[in-house]
Amino acid sequence: MAHIAYMGITFIIILPILAANGNPTRSSVHKKVGDECQFLNFTESYCELGERCSTLETFVNDGIIALEEIPTCGFMDPTSSEMLCCPSQRSISSFPQAPKQSFNHLAFLLYLNPTTLDEYVIRCTAIVLSSTKVLTSSTCVDRENDEPSKVVVGFSNARNFNLFVHDKEIFDIKVRETTQLYNDIALLVLNRQINLDQMPNARSATLCIEEEAKGASNLYAVGFAQGVDGNNCDLFTTPLVLSDDCSLVQATRRVEGFDIPGMHLCVKPISGGSHSRQMDSCSKCLTASSSVLHVQRTDGSFCVAGIATPTTNKCVVNNNSIYYTSVVNSDARMFHGKYEKFTYRHRENDGSFGTP
Question: Which pLDDT score, from 0 to 100, does residue 149 have?
Answer without folding.
Answer: 95
